[in-house]
C-alpha cells in the first residue's frame, strides 16, 4: 500500500473515531480542532495545554495560530465558547507553568487542564481486560515521542534524521499494540473495545501526519500540533470509557 493510501485509510479511521465517541463529547476535526463538551476537571491524571490566548473572533484566532506555527508552536485552535490557540501540551503542570511564568508564552497566556485518565477497563474481563490495559499504553508511548522529539529538535540535541528514526520506532510500537489488542478483542462485541481499537488507529494517524520533511521549525510545530490532538482524543476516549 502506498504511503498516501495508508494515510487516507488512517484518516478515515480517525474520523470514524470522532463519530463513535458521541456519548461523552461533541468535537470537530476540521482544520481548527476539537470542540470539547464534557467536564474534564475531576480526573486525577491531567495534561496541561499552554494557550497563548482566547479569541471571540475565529479568524483572528486562525491568524494567531499561523503565527504560532511559524515560530515552532502547535498553533492548534480549540473551538468552544471562544477560540483558544494552543502553543504546546505538557504532561507536567510544573513544566507548563514554568514556561508561562517565564513569559515565553506572551501576555494573556494561560494553562488549560485536560483530563486524560485514569481510563477504566472494568468493562472488560479476563484476558481482554489485561489486553486493554496494555493497549492504553499507546498514549504514553506516543505522547513521550511527540513531546521529547519536539524538545530535542528545539534544543538541537536531535536532527531531523534522528526524529524520523524515532518516529519509525514509535509507529512500530503503537502498531504492535494495535495488532495485539485487535487480536485479543476479535470476538468482543463490546462497543468500548471498538472505541479503543479506533483510538489506537487515531494515534497511528497522528504519527503519520507528523511532518518531518521540511525545516526544523516546521517539524517542531507539527509534532506539537499532533501532541495536542493526541491529548484531546485521549480525553474523549476517557470520557466514553469511564461513562
Strand residue content: 5-15%
Distance between the termini: 37 Å
Query: How many discrete domains?
Result: 1
The averaged pLDDT comes out at: 85
Q: How do the helices and strands line up, and which of them pair or pack?
A:
Elements: H1 3-20, E1 45-55, H2 58-70, E2 76-79, E3 83-90, H3 93-101, E4 110-117, H4 126-135, H5 138-154, H6 160-184, H7 191-209, H8 216-241
Antiparallel strand pairs: 1-3, 1-4, 2-3
Helix pairs in contact: 1-7, 4-6, 5-6, 5-8, 6-7, 7-8
Please describe what this structure looks like.
The chain is α+β, with helices and mostly antiparallel strands. It has one domain (3-241). The protein contains eight helices and four strands. The longest helix is centred in the C-terminal third of the chain and has 26 residues, at 216-241.
Features:
243 residues, alpha+beta, 4-stranded antiparallel β-sheet, 8 helices, 13% strand, disordered N terminus
What is this structure, in a nutshell?
With 243 residues, the protein is an alpha+beta fold.
Amino acid at each position: 500500500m502506498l504511503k498516501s493510501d495508508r494515510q487516507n485509510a488512517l484518516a478515515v479511521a480517525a474520523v470514524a473515531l470522532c463519530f463513535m465517541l458521541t456519548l461523552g463529547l461533541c468535537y470537530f476535526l476540521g482544520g481548527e480542532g476539537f470542540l470539547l463538551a464534557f467536564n474534564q476537571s475531576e480526573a486525577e491524571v491531567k495534561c496541561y495545554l499552554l494557550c497563548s490566548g482566547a479569541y471571540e473572533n475565529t479568524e483572528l484566532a486562525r491568524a494567531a495560530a499561523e503565527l504560532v506555527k511559524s515560530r515552532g508552536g502547535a498553533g492548534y485552535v480549540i473551538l468552544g465558547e471562544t477560540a483558544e490557540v494552543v502553543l504546546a501540551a505538557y504532561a507536567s503542570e510544573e513544566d507548563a507553568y514554568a514556561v508561562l511564568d517565564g513569559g515565553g508564552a506572551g501576555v494573556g497566556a494561560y494553562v488549560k487542564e485536560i483530563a486524560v485518565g485514569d481510563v477504566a477497563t472494568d468493562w472488560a474481563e479476563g484476558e481482554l481486560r489485561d489486553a486493554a490495559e496494555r493497549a492504553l499504553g499507546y498514549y504514553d508511548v506516543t505522547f513521550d515521542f511527540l513531546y521529547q522529539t519536539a524538545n530535542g529538535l528545539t534544543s538541537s540535541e536531535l536532527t531531523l534524521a534522528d526524529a524520523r528514526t524515532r518516529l519509525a520506532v514509535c509507529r512500530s510500537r503503537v502498531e504492535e499494540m494495535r495488532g495485539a489488542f485487535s487480536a485479543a478483542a476479535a470476538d468482543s462485541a463490546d462497543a468500548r473495545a471498538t472505541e479503543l481499537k479506533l483510538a489506537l488507529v487515531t494515534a497511528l494517524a497522528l504519527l503519520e501526519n507528523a511532518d518531518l520533511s521540511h525545516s526544523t521549525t516546521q517539524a517542531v510545530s507539527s509534532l506539537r500540533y499532533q501532541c495536542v490532538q493526541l491529548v484531546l482524543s485521549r480525553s474523549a476516549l476517557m470520557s466514553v470509557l469511564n461513562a
